[in-house]
Amino acid sequence: MECRVSWLGNDGMAFSAETGSGHLVNMDGAPEAGGRNLAPRPMELLLAGAGGCSAFDVVLILQRARQAISGCEVVLQAERATEDPKVFTKINLHFTVKGKDLDQAKVDRAVKLSHEKYCSATTMLAKTAELTYSVEVIAE
């Protein structure tokens, strides 16, 4: 896996990342750090990546379990250390899974499997952060 990150110029703290798959993602810093708030912060993208990785697992596991899933959302709440490096210290992932006749036990199992076995991103973040999760199932 590869990614190229380039500073976008000396008038701010904006960067552009080109992923190995050829996609572009822009990042910017907070105004108090010299940025112009034009794009997500790098740490926000790290958190979003963890949510995407885990949600991907949950959807895939439920599809393979032949569950009629129609939606999956994960809201992440994170706390960071106050001293540098300001790593994540606590992260909660709240999953809301929608579908028809979903089996609560299978949804719980999918989230647990992502959390404990499959999600590479949350496994890495768990090296510095206490990870917790909760699950809500909405019947359609």
What does this structure look like?
Helix content is 31%, strand content 36%. It has helices at 42-64, 104-118, 120-125, and strands at 3-7, 15-19, 24-27, 68-80, 88-100, 130-139. The strands form two sheets. Strands 1-2-3 form a three-stranded antiparallel beta sheet, with no helix packed on it. A three-stranded mixed beta sheet has the order 4-5-6, with helices on one face. Strand 2 and strand 3 (24-27) form a beta hairpin. The chain folds into two domains: 3-33, no CATH class; 42-139, 2-Layer Sandwich (GMP Synthetase, Chain A, domain 3), CATH 3.30.300.20. The model has no long low-confidence stretch (mean pLDDT 97).
Short description:
The chain has 140 residues and is of the alpha+beta class. It is 31% helix and 36% strand.
Shape: elongated
Instruction: Quote the average pLDDT.
Output: 97
Low-confidence parts: none
Query: Biggest β-sheet, characterized?
Result: 3 strands, antiparallel
CATH topology of the largest domain: GMP Synthetase, Chain A, domain 3
SSE class: alpha+beta
How many separate helices?
3
CATH architectural group of the largest domain: 2-Layer Sandwich
Rounded to an integer, what's the Rg over CA atoms? 17 Å
Count of DSSP strands: 6
The order of strands across the largest sheet is 1-2-3
CATH class of the largest domain: Alpha Beta
Task: Give the helix proportion (percent range).
Answer: 25-40%
What is the element string, with H for helices and E for strands?
EEEHEEHHE
- CATH homologous superfamily classification of the largest domain: K homology (KH) domain
Distance between the termini: 39 Å
Instruction: Provide the domain count.
Output: 2
Strand percentage lies at 35-45%
Organism: Polynucleobacter asymbioticus (strain DSM 18221 / CIP 109841 / QLW-P1DMWA-1) (Polynucleobacter necessarius subsp. asymbioticus)
Protein name: OsmC family protein
Pfam family, one: OsmC
